[in-house]
Every structure is written in C-alpha cells, then in structure tokens.
Specification:
This protein is an all-alpha fold. The protein has helices at residues 2-17, 24-43, 49-71, 74-80, 85-88, 90-113, 120-146, 149-153, 159-189, 196-203, 207-219. The N and C termini lie far apart (48 Å).
Length: 220
C-alpha cells in the first residue's frame, strides 16, 4: 500500500505540481519519507511511533537540503518552467530551510523517547543538527537582509550580497549531504539493545535478563 501510494504521489501529484505550485516540494518530501515506513512495515507495526519519527527525519531533512540546492540553480528551474520557492519567494525558501533544520532536534529526541535509540543519541545527533541549523540560520539571515524592505527600496541586493547568500546556500547544501548519513549511522550505533550481546560476552551482562530477574524478585 505504501509503495502504491508513493507511485501515485511521485508520478502523478508531485510531477504535475512541479509546473503549477511551490507545494510540489512538500509533496516531494512525503515521497522521500515513505521508504523508511516501508522498511519498518516489513518487520514491525506502523503503530510504533518510532517508525513515524524515522519518516519525519527524512521528511524534515529534505527542506534544508533541497532549498539550499535549488537556490543556486533557481534560474534553470525558472527557464524550465518549474515552480520553485527559490525564485517565487526566496525569503520563504530560506525560512523554510531554517524551520525544518530546527525540527530535526525534537525528531531525534523522539527516536530516543520512543525507544528506537538510546538516550546518548539525543546528544550526538544534536551536534550535527546544530551544525545544520547554524548554516540554515546564516542562509536565512542573509536572505532576510537581501529581501528586506530597505534593500528592495534601494533597488535590490548588491552583487556582493547576492554572492554571500549563494555561498551560504552552498555551505548548507554540503552540510546536509554529510548530516543525514552521519545521523543515520549514529542511530544504528545507538540502537536500543545494539550492544547488549557484546556486554554479555565480555561482562556477563544482559539488560533483558536483568529486567526479568528484577520483575521476578519484585513479584516474590
């Protein structure tokens, strides 16, 4: 069902919206978020909120990634007839990238809260999320300046100000390239119970056995 939904979303709705509305980016982000749900559904229940946190992670990441990418090639999109936020509303383009960069923090906390990862993941992932949020903030701040009423009244941003915005967009794009795979690797390393077998092998320690012993002791 998820695969069929993704085919419809991508080949019909998303592709059609590219030439009609900036909403195509939001629909495209849903397309990118569904595959993790498909993997989860293959081995567990989608009633587990951890599955939706993982999908939300992929969904949110796509905005700082794509919005920064599209910024520097917005002219090509416009010439091709694709309606993208980067040229329709450049200020909104940067603001959306910042919003979803900040959303990465609670999503990663959710992965720990719902038991997908241990609590240390919240700390590790925050370093990477902080890096991307900072780059998003610099990009947004420059675009906010470039498209302020004062600058627009003066005839628009100067060549130097445009160059600075382009540079921040490029830095954010490369930041996003590294951020997601490293966060996912950290999620695997911090997966709940990932190292229990190793602890048991070296130290004779097993969390699940200890929980059962504690439960039995309390019952007695």
């Amino acid at each position: 069902m998820l695969a069929a939904l993704n085919i419809v979303l991508y080949s019909w709705i998303y592709t059609s919206l590219k030439r009609k509305s900036i909403l195509n980016t939001w629909v495209g982000a849903i397309v990118g978020a569904i595959p993790p749900l498909m993997g989860w559904a293959a081995c567990s229940s989608l009633s587990d909120l951890g599955a939706w946190c993982l999908a939300a992670l992929l969904y949110a990441w796509q905005f700082p990634h794509f919005n920064s990418l599209s910024h520097n090639i917005k002219t090509e999109y416009q010439k091709a007839g694709y309606v993208m936020t980067a040229f329709v509303n450049p200020k909104l383009n940067a603001r959306v990238a910042l919003r979803y960069s900040l959303l990465m923090f609670p999503i990663c906390f959710g992965l720990s809260y719902w038991g997908v990862c241990d609590n240390y993941f919240s700390f590790d992932s925050s370093i990477l999320n902080g890096w991307m949020a900072y780059m998003s903030f610099k990009f947004w701040l420059q675009q906010r300046h470039n498209y302020s009423k004062k600058i627009q009244a003066a005839g628009g941003p100067s060549a130097a100000e445009i160059t600075i915005a382009n540079a921040y967009a490029k830095k954010l794009f490369w930041c996003s390239i590294w951020q997601l795979p490293v966060v996912l690797v950290l999620a695997m390393l911090h997966k709940t119970g990932q190292w229990d077998g190793l602890y048991y092998h070296f130290f004779g320690y097993n969390k699940e056995n200890d929980k059962l012993k504690e439960k039995f002791t309390n019952a007695m």
